[in-house]
Amino acid sequence: MSEDDRLRFPATERNRGPILAVLERVLPSRGTVLETASGSGEHAMFFARALPSLTFQPSDPDPTHVASIDAWRRSEGLANVRAALQLDVHTRPWPIDHADAIFCANMIHIAPWSACLALLEGAGACLREGAPFVLYGPFREGGVHTAPSNESFDRSLQARDPRWGVRDLDEVVALARTHGLVHDETVRMPANNLTAIFRRSP
Ligand SMILES: C[S@@+](CC[C@H](N)C(=O)[O-])C[C@H]1O[C@@H](n2cnc3c(N)ncnc32)[C@H](O)[C@@H]1O
Q1: pLDDT at 38
Q2: Hey, which residues does 127 pair with through a beta bridge?
Q3: What's the confidence (pLDDT) of residue 163?
Q4: According to the model, what pLDDT value does residue 3 have?
């Protein structure tokens, strides 16, 4: 493992500022934030630097991504980022007792629907009452795409893997409720993305 393991996902530089503005508002002031599907690890580093009173726990199932996260962690030298967990959200139980918040960006459309189910179930089990679950990405709303670019993105995803696709936020909200995650707010983000915020019910 070396600094050369650091991956760069260009979209993270564009969306991290607007996402941080949401996180600053909805995350607790202290505690552990579990990030699922961390990818390169760039989001976790940026958020951890901006929010030093929180501890970030990045994770991803892909060993290349885990190596990238840990290479970024070493090069950034951030004391509030833990070593990455190799976590596929389908795993039971998740290798973390509980988190004070969970963040997931750009995963549920680029994985089978079972990954969305598993994410919601795992998040519901991991969070305590009132804790936020923050889900960022492209969504349909009421079954309808929010922009032509999302519609063509959806077609390209399904051409790559018929199990993938832009999910309907209404379906996600309904399913989340069955796992004790109550939809609190939807924030409109740049580039036709949304951030959906849920809270763990009692
Ligand atoms: C498009 S990347 C997004 C990475 C990062 N969150 C971002 O926004 O830049 C999708 C990520 O989802 C992860 N992923 C796919 N299936 C997953 C699963 N079943 N459990 C957890 N992560 C998964 C992939 O390994 C990849 O890192």
Answers
A1: 98
A2: 99
A3: 98
A4: 64
Q: How far is CA 154 from the centre of its chain?
A: 19
What distance in Å separates the CA atoms of residue 133 and residue 122, rounded to the nearest whole number? 11
Task: List the domain boundaries for the chain.
Answer: 3-106+116-137+168-200
Across the chain, which has 202 residues, the per-10-residue mean pLDDT values are 84 97 98 98 98 98 98 96 98 95 98 98 98 98 96 97 98 98 98 98 96
Task: Report the residue among 107, 108, 166 best suited for mutation to probe ligand 1: largest number of ligand atoms under 8 A from its CB.
Answer: 107
pLDDT in the model for residue 23: 98
Radius of gyration of the chain (CA): 16
Compute the distance between CA of residue 140 and CA of residue 147 in angstroms, rounded to an integer.
Answer: 9
Pocket of ligand 1 (CB under 6 A): 9, 12, 36-39, 43, 60-62, 65, 88-90, 105-107, 110-111, 115
Class level of CATH domain 3-106+116-137+168-200: alpha beta
Ligand 1 atom at minimal distance to the Cα of residue 136: 8
pLDDT of residue 176: 98
Measured CA to CA in angstroms, residue 123 lies from 31, 35, 48, 182 at distances of: 16, 11, 20, 12
Structure tokens at 40: 């390169």
Residues forming a β-bridge with 57: 34
Q: What phi and psi values does residue 22 have, to the nearest 5 degrees?
A: -75, -45
Residue nearest to atom 13 of ligand 1 (CA): 37
